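Example protein
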Amino acid sequence: MATFPSVEEQLKQIRRGVEEIIPEDALTEKLKKSKETGEPLTVKLGCDPSRPDLHLGHAVVLRKLRQFQDLGHQAVLIIGDFTGMIGDPSGRSKTRQPLTFEETRKNGQTYFEQASKILDADKTRIVYNSEWLEKMSFSDVIDLAGQYTVARMLERDDFEDRYKAGAPIGVHEFLYPLAQAQDSVAIESDIELGGTDQRFNLLVGRSVQQARGQDPQVCILLPLLEGTKGGEKMSKSLDNYIGIDEAPEEMYGKALSIPDKLIYRYFELATDVPTADLDKIHSFAQDNPRDAKHRLAHTIVAMYHGEEAADAARDHFQKTVIEGEMPDDIEVVKPTPDKDSSIGLLNLMSQAGLTQSNSEARRLIKQNAVSIDGAKVQNWKRTIDLSTEPPFVLQVGKRRYVRVEWDG
């Protein structure tokens, strides 16, 4: 029989950084019953593995799931290997490109490996929703579809907007929230976590559970963390993200680049600093944003790489950015030429691991963020002769360097 903190203490932890609890009185009752019976609540988080790379925006909801683990409850991470083949329509202005089953499985494995940096992997129940969704017959699907009306589906903002604009809506897209709801039925979810953009999907889960004779889940909605540039939510496609697998120096520098107004929000949503300390941090961020950012950057790096790496990242930033020195331990790259001994600059940047796409490389060059031996590069079409130009230092931004060499 498990033991839990008081209901009041649990609620205090759960409410931290939460946008909405639907309904909160039901959460209180579930926590009371759990404490009385010694039975942990089943807390669900579904992930649609369309992208394998996680950033601090994804970590907001994962950290909340970890809080439930620390309170003694059962975390269930549902990998949407089946629903990923439909594609979540949330926030989409057009039909999403579906993935293959193999892609969803591969991405799902990478997702869990990265999520394990936040969750207690040994106490996390991992399930793939193909286990029950793939076994459903067509009559089962018709029965599930009968639990919701088209009118209610069109109340969803993204569907309503697309319908009014005459944009296509695939019938299969209506099945996504129903399939996600079936996940809640399959595991008998007590609580489901999600971002505010998942509100509709989570509420469909409550309705379908109730129709199936289950006690409806409580929906806990977390805010969408703004990216490092402020304004829009954190997104890899917008290049305003801090990846949880990124190098310590990169994470540190990116954390320092956020607008001052987001310092407290990042502390609240993206770190594990005690809730009791948040008021002091709020005042600290207002009075001394520079030092508050350094504390934030150090905290974030330490969470994912350890205190020693955080100290090294801070020293690296001091040396390379504030003092303007070149780091001593620059990685050496010996690229493979495109033809003979020549290589395009975009390909060189990719092989050096400085960029992940040609479009990103072009954008950085146009922003004067790329230099060779300190000289800014302005022509993204530039070709480099590896037989005559190396060795040289290729730099992207203020923090990323490689030394380019070639043996011929």
